[in-house]
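FW: tagging you since you asked about this chain on Friday. Here's the raw sequence from the shared folder, copied in full. Didn't touch anything.
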Amino acid sequence: MRQLMLAAVVFLIGASSSLAQGHMGSPQEQQACRRDAQRFCRQQLADDNAVQQCLQQNRAKLSKACAKVFQSHGM
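HL: got it, structure written out here
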């Protein structure tokens, strides 16, 4: 379960415009969104695309740290 969630968060970070540059998100960025993914997107954890969409749909509810990750990647 922990590895699956980590993969989902890695995808979230990597799905940004930085993906083309090979940037998959720092460990700090992954950590920043980990709890939000668990809290808001538990049912989607098996689907990386769905987790990203879920977090974007819940953007107003995200922790400040995770919201900053989205903002820093232009999302």
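FW: DSSP finds four helices and no strands in the chain.
HL: agreed, and Confidence is low (pLDDT under 50) at residues 15-24.
FW: great, closing this out.
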